[in-house]
Amino acid sequence: MSLRAPDPIGPPSAVGSPAPWVALPAGPPQAWLARPYSQLLRGPNHRWWRPLVSLAIAAGATFAVLVLSWVVTAALLMGQSAGSDGSGAAPSDAEYDRWAISPTGVLVTNLVLAALIVVAQAAVWGGHGWRPRWLASVTGGVRWAWLVTSYLVSLLVLVIADALLLALDGDLTWQPESQAGLYAVIVITTTPLQAAGEEYLFRGWLTQAIGAWIPRAEVGAIVAALVSGTLFALAHGQQDPWLFADRFVFGLAASWLVWRTGGLEASIAMHGANNVIAFAYSVGSGHLEEMLDATTSTPESFVADLVLMVLTAVVLDRLARRRAVPRLFHPPMRAW
């Protein structure tokens, strides 16, 4: 199907909505107007059932990815067990826990989460009829210069802020994990993909699918932020209220960036920079297992993370405004 919306039958009015004498083709009124990222899929081919089809595709594709990851993990663990004791028996929970924090385990986990990029793209293409590139931004693709800039700024802000917090806390130690170099390679090459996978699914597909159902852009964006933030936090497994709140607020900040910048680049950068720095500190300080298996947090940690998230999001938003990063999709229209 063509990505370009068909030409409207009449000219748009000066105030940004179709003139009352214009008979529009099928589709919601937003199909003929400039609209934000969350409503991008409300094009001329939008129907109420399309988000349901998209949900079915996303659920099925996610299940397939999880099954594949389980098969790969089981094969690797059984091969490891056979190599160590010759038994080839099913691995125990303790063996799985040790494997999950090994370089191989971190690599597999990151690649599985990176596969969510394809899951989200398939859901948008198959369910809504829009090509995958429209998940990235309102311009129909990744704005690479903006993505790189957002990453550099996020890393700079978070490194400085985290260094100050660690200096004040006095908990800065150097006790690197064994195979620290291998961890570093895996983190640098795959953690940005892992962060992108989560953003494509939660702030990308889910935001657009919910926004396609709700006529008012602001309401759709708020509902999408609340739903995606909740599901994003729950997807991280067992956690206490403070850790849940930490992840939920991160989801809200990422959704706000998507709304303000018209794409996923800034949220991917903030997410990726945060994870890379967390991994770097954990590997360098010998706290990798503690970070990966964390199920509790504290009010102090939540407040510190909240300040960092808000600071990073505000800096990226101000930079996007200065660079005039497009935040609205403009349907193709003929000259009148």
What portion of residues is helical?
Answer: 55-70%
Percentage of β-strand residues: under 5%
Q: Which residues sit in consecutive blocks of at least 5 with pLDDT less than 50?
A: 1-23
Gap between N and C termini: 26 Å
What is the residue-averaged pLDDT?
89
N to C succession of SSEs: EHHHHHHHHHHHE
Strand order of the largest sheet: 1-2
Number of helices: 11
The coarse overall form would be globular
Tally of strands: 2
The secondary-structure class comes to mainly alpha
Largest sheet: 2 strands, antiparallel
Q: What Rg do the Cα atoms give?
A: 22 Å
Compact overview of the structure:
This protein has helices at residues 50-85, 93-100, 103-114, 116-128, 144-169, 180-213, 217-234, 241-261, 265-285, 288-292, 299-322, and strands spanning 35-36, 328-329. With 336 residues, the protein is mainly alpha-helical.
Q: What do you see in this structure?
A:
The protein has helices spanning about 50-85, 95-100, 105-115, 115-130, 145-170, 180-215, 215-235, 240-260, 265-285, 290, 300-320; strands at about 35, 330. It is mainly alpha-helical and about 325 residues long. A two-stranded antiparallel ribbon has the order 1-2. α3 runs parallel beside α6 (about 180-215). The relative contact order is 0.14.
Question: In terms of topology, how is this protein built?
Answer:
Blueprint: E1 35-36, H1 50-85, H2 93-100, H3 103-114, H4 116-128, H5 144-169, H6 180-213, H7 217-234, H8 241-261, H9 265-285, H10 288-292, H11 299-322, E2 328-329
Antiparallel strand pairs: 1-2
Helix pairs in contact: 1-3, 1-4, 1-6, 3-6, 4-6, 5-9, 5-11, 6-7, 6-8, 6-9, 7-8, 8-9, 8-11
